[in-house]
Here is the input.
Amino acid sequence: MKTFRLGGIHPQENKFSAGKKIQIAELPKQVVIPLSHYIGSPSEAVVKKGDLVKVGQLIGKANGFISANVHSSVSGKVNKIDVQLDASGYKRPAVFIDVEGDEWEETIDRSTELKRDCNLTKEEILAKIKDAGIVGLGGATFPAHVKLSPPPGKKADILIINAVECEPYLTCDHQLMLEKGDEILVGITIIMKALGVTKAVIGVENNKKDAVAHLSKLAANYPGVEVQALKVQYPQGGEKQLIDAVIRRQVPSGRIPIEVGAVVQNVATTYAIYEAVQKNKPMVERVMTITGKDAPNPGNYLVRLGIYLSHVVDMAGGVPAGTGKIVGGGPMMGRSLMNLNVPMAKGSSGVLFIKDEESVRKPIQNCIRCAKCVTVCPMGLEPFLLMNQSERNMWPEMETNRTMDCIECGSCSYTCPSNRPLLDYIRYGKSTVGGIIRNRAAK
Here is the structure.
């Protein structure tokens, strides 16, 4: 069975919420919608205190090419525009809206009827995606209209849909495939039209056999679309790893997928694109997973943007006793949350409760030069070396040793027998080296 050729691990899957139908999160009395919850420039508020807004109304306009529009996820009155701590612990500008009813923009088609035909041009499709504020929902949150606009001289010949969901615990994409398969397939044909390609492959790990069977049956009615079952191997959801697994092309160091003729889109993003193009629905909500070994009601929830995570967690039964750490996202690439009073953002894929005894780091020991971190690195790096150089502020050496190629998957830290915080130091070094590179380019 296909998989990527370099490195990788297989952590315990712990998919406790698999098969749990998507539940709709209740609306709170107030939402706090960040104006910056994606890669790129923050959007500029186009509403002010006292304004009445509807669901789907533009409240933040994209500021620059790599930016995204932000829309109200509720109807009500703008209470204020202020700053709010986000999941990263930084204060970001946000729009505070007091909820009053649930009135949607009239242009949004809220029917459940499948709308298969799309007669729009490539330019019209991209304009709708941009207007709707669609960003990548697999974690990177890169504006979708930018990814679907290859630079001059570059052309895609294949679309790859990332339906891998290789992070342990998370199941929101899996359940979305089971419940919204038809819409996802239509979304794929829309993206194919925007890119001008005739072939698309949906990559799904083989631990989701029901999704593989369901999508394969649907894909038979869509020419050029096929489903590829993949070996269960983390981090197969990484763009470069997925491209290698599906079409056996390797993206060169420092390059992007379009260099090898591929464009990768997350399956949830594909569904959001369907809703934007066929239903005129901007990105105002997404599916996320609430889970953990002791979670009272692990499940998948459709959550409006701006709802505090604490509100959704309460719906799921609250924080279980004995929780030592709460993670936003999955255990491998997610980040610890300072508290749950942070708003739901476009990139919020899940909330994970980690038991106290599992959340405590083990004592760090000396590196024994076992090379396990080198063996499992999917980018062919030397994590032990990069950590040593980061500790010693050896930034030129870190750049030479390709620290910017690190995808921060955490495989090195996971496999280290000496409990060394490899990824922590590499992230720190990568951030510093990235700043040096940007400053150099600006001169």
